[in-house]
Design brief:
This protein has 15 helices and 12 strands. The chain is of the alpha/beta class. It starts with a strand and ends with a helix. The model has no long low-confidence stretch (mean pLDDT about 95).
Length: about 375
């Protein structure tokens, strides 16, 4: 079964065609997903279809709400329910559904499966997912921690188990990219994560603020007369590294830090501070730490972020070998020999998880 994986991110759309053994038969990366020409996506799908017969399509859907906790075969009713969740992930959900519509138009007879970023976090215990807000809000609006990047965290956890030769461990997986989140995973089950009701929560990201005092939002509405839309736009698109350093690109932040730029130095230090304190929280949720795994664009490629984080996490047994860290190519172990916990660098492969979940749902 050749599965076409459709992964619509916040700024790009990735297409991957995988065979039964998860080998990549073809790939297409389409930038600027907001402004894709009508012909671009169909042409890319048709090019991939020439490589092999597409027998199923797996779509990454960011938000499945409380209802969708596993991959689900798509039909009109399911698609309608997913549209109802747009308000919970306004930066991502519309793009995923637009890609779904476009691919379905090209492959109308091919079965499609929705694979949810929230599903991996369905095992989070009630104490970790519950907010101390009025019960009426919880019942009426479904307010709770959902968590995101679950497809990436799920692959990372599985790959760590493969590399270590054991499935039982206490893992903190660090998905660090334009979006960023951590997950506490015990023996393959998620116990907590840093993103919450929306993908805006948690760590500092490229253009997203991560966690802020909710009183700040209330203060801005009351004292500065800012509208919810204005605040949302600022926190989603004009915050994070971009606000602190003037660039959303971690590579540029590090280059400016090396050249003595004070704003970049503060941005990097603040990013790492949020990261390591969140790792500590996730380690507590997991009941300890056996493995710390870095994945995503920053996690895989930033020697500096990994090194700075390790220096702050020595009390949890994290010690990296400088030479191994400098030369790291995923998937690899960069731990020092005497480290009390392992540090791994794992390539992000959401496409593999999506293809596997699509096959499982259709079988």
């Amino acid at each position: 079964m050749a599965v076409l994986v459709v992964n619509a991110g916040s700024s790009s759309l990735k297409l991957r065609l995988l065979d039964d053994r998860d080998n990549t038969l073809g790939a297409e990366d389409l930038p600027d997903v907001d402004h894709l020409q009508h012909e671009t996506l169909p042409e890319a799908v048709e090019r991939l279809a020439r490589a092999d017969a597409i027998t199923a399509v797996g779509h990454r859907i960011v938000h499945g709400g409380a209802e969708f906790t596993r991959a689900t075969v798509l039909d009109d009713a399911v698609t309608a329910r997913l549209r109802d969740l747009i308000d919970l992930a306004p930066l991502h959900q519309p793009k995923s559904l637009a890609a779904l519509d476009a691919v379905t138009a090209v492959l109308p007879g091919v079965p499609a499966v929705a694979c949810f970023d929230t599903a991996f976090h369905a095992t989070i215990p009630p104490a970790a997912r519950t907010y101390a807000v009025p019960r009426e809000w919880q019942r009426r609006y479904g307010i709770r921690k959902y968590g995101f990047h679950g497809l990436s965290h799920a692959y990372c956890a599985g790959r760590v188990a493969d590399l270590l030769g054991r499935s039982r461990c206490r893992l903190v997986s660090c998905h660090l990219g334009a979006g960023a989140s951590l997950a506490a995973v015990v023996d393959g089950r998620c116990m907590d994560t840093t993103m919450g009701f929306t993908p805006l929560d948690g760590l500092i990201m490229a253009t997203r603020s991560g966690s802020v005092d909710p009183g700040l939002v209330l203060w801005l509405t009351e004292h500065e007369n800012m509208s919810p839309h204005e605040i949302a736009d600022a926190l989603e698109h004009r915050s994070g590294l971009l606000a602190l350093a003037g660039t959303a690109d971690m590579r540029e932040v590090q280059a400016r830090t090396d050249s003595g730029d004070a704003d970049a130095r503060l941005a990097l230090a603040t990013y790492v501070h949020r990261l390591v304190t969140a790792v500590g929280a996730m380690a507590a949720a997991a009941g300890g730490l056996d493995v710390l795994a870095f994945t995503g664009g920053v996690g895989e490629n930033s020697v500096t972020v990994r090194s700075m984080a390790a220096d702050r996490l020595a009390h949890l047994g994290i010690v990296v070998d400088p030479a191994a860290n400098d030369a790291a190519v995923p998937d690899t172990d960069v731990s020092a020999v005497a480290a009390g916990a392992r540090t791994l660098v794992i390539a992000a492969r959401e496409d593999v998880i999506i293809a596997r979940e699509a096959r499982r749902a259709l079988s």
